[in-house]
Structures are given as structure tokens and as C-alpha cells.
Design a protein that fits this description.
It is a single chain. This protein is an all-alpha fold and 219 residues long. It has twelve helices and no strands. It has two domains: 164 residues, no CATH class; 42 residues, no CATH class. The protein is 65% helix and 0% strand. Helix 4 packs across helix 8 and helix 5 runs antiparallel to helix 8. It is extended. The model has no long low-confidence stretch (mean pLDDT 86).
Length: 219
């Protein structure tokens, strides 16, 4: 979202100027117009877009493609070390350095984010500052949440036996999030249904019970 806002900033500005007279703009339009003219706000959007395009987006694609959750251990360490360096000097990010070539998607939005496409020195400096603030916070979360997978953690060494124990462990929480989203929807659609009934509906979907019944022999 941040990348798209930054990429379309001039389009947004022109749209508001061409279709809404200044005196007819409501508070939302005024706020949006002020934001796309505010270098601090634009630097924040740009920084979030760069982080998504170069770091978190490719990392998520890697996570979706690994076979085992413990295969991510080396990836986490490299990612953490990269974040640690970039949090001190994010100039490589604003220059568009690609860290995961096979998992980085490039398009016109991607290309618009980097320094060779923007000669505004103030905006570039603000973007670097925003990137470093974001990455410092990333580093804090990584060290806290991934401590078991980093050097010294319980999953970082001697994982041969653990691999078997976790062979069915998902590399993401996408399924769990989907289950809770379904539960939230069902509670609104079926307010009188009890917890057991809602659980049954979700399990019926997850276990592909209908497909299993359809595949059964009629006899």
C-alpha cells in the first residue's frame, strides 16, 4: 500500500486538483491532498514500500516455498544480520539493492521507489531516516520473537531429531488466520450457533469432507 501511494502521489494530487474545487473539498480530500504534498508522509510511504519490495515480500515468498520450518533457521540469521547493518545505514535500500533476486517482483511501482528515479535530496534523506527507524524496530522484534531460531536458541543446533517431530509443522500461520477469519464470519452469519457447531463447520471445510464423500463408492 505504501509503495502504491508513493508511486501514484502525483496522480492523486492531479485528480483532486482537477475534479474538486478547493472550497468544495471535504476533510478527507483535504487530508489526502495535504499528505501527498507532505515530504515526511511520502518518505514514510516510500520506506514502507521499499521494505515490502526488497525485504518482507521476498522473505514471505521464501517462507511459502521451504519444505520444513527448520529450513528457515539459516534464512532468519542472514535476514537478522542484514537488518542489523541496514538499520545503521539504509542507503543500499534506497538505491534498490536486491537481496533475494529469485523472489523479488519488479514492476513500475518497484522502479519508482528508488533514488535513481527521484532526485529530491530532502525526500531521499527523509526516506533513509524512515527506513532506519523501521528496521531498528524490526530488529527488536526479530531478536525477541525468533530467539529460539538464532544462535544460542534451542532450535538453532542439533535439530536432526526435532526435524522429525516438526515434520508436519506449517511454515506460516496462514491456515490459523484463515480459521479465525472463518470463525468471525460464521459468528456473524449464524449468531445462534454454539461453539461446537461452528467448529464442526470449519473442520468440515478444512478436512475436505464433502470431497471425501463425493469420492466414495456409492455401494
Amino acid at each position: 500500500m505504501g509503495a502504491s501511494v508513493f508511486h501514484h502521489r502525483n496522480h492523486i494530487k492531479l485528480f483532486i486538483e482537477n475534479y474538486f474545487n478547493k472550497e468544495d473539498r471535504n476533510r478527507l480530500l483535504c487530508a489526502v491532498y495535504n499528505y501527498v504534498n507532505n515530504p515526511v508522509y511520502l518518505a514514510g510511504c516510500r520506506a514502507l514500500g521499499i521494505v515490502d519490495m526488497l525485504l518482507t515480500g521476498p522473505l514471505w515468498r521464501i517462507i511459502e516455498n521451504v519444505d520444513h520450518i527448520l529450513d528457515l533457521i539459516d534464512i532468519w540469521l542472514v535476514f537478522k544480520n542484514s537488518i542489523e547493518l541496514l538499520s545503521k545505514d539504509a542507503s543500499e535500500l534506497i538505491e534498490g539493492k536486491v537481496f533475494y533476486p529469485e523472489f523479488t517482483k519488479k514492476d513500475e511501482v518497484f522502479n519508482s521507489l528508488f533514488i535513481n528515479n527521484d532526485l529530491d535530496e530532502e525526500l531521499n534523506l527523509l526516506t533513509i531516516e524512515a527506513l532506519q527507524i523501521i528496521l531498528i524496530n524490526f530488529l527488536i522484534i526479530i531478536e525477541r520473537q525468533l530467539s529460539d531460531c538464532l544462535p544460542g536458541g534451542i532450535f538453532n543446533e542439533n535439530t536432526e531429531g526435532v526435524n522429525k517431530d516438526l515434520r508436519v509443522e506449517s511454515t506460516t500461520v496462514a491456515t490459523t488466520k484463515r480459521d479465525f477469519a472463518n470463525l468471525d464470519r460464521l459468528r456473524r452469519e449464524k449468531p445462534n450457533a454454539n461453539t461446537i457447531a461452528l467448529e464442526g463447520i470449519i473442520l468440515f471445510s478444512n478436512n475436505k469432507t464433502l470431497r471425501w464423500l463425493d469420492d466414495m463408492n456409492v455401494e
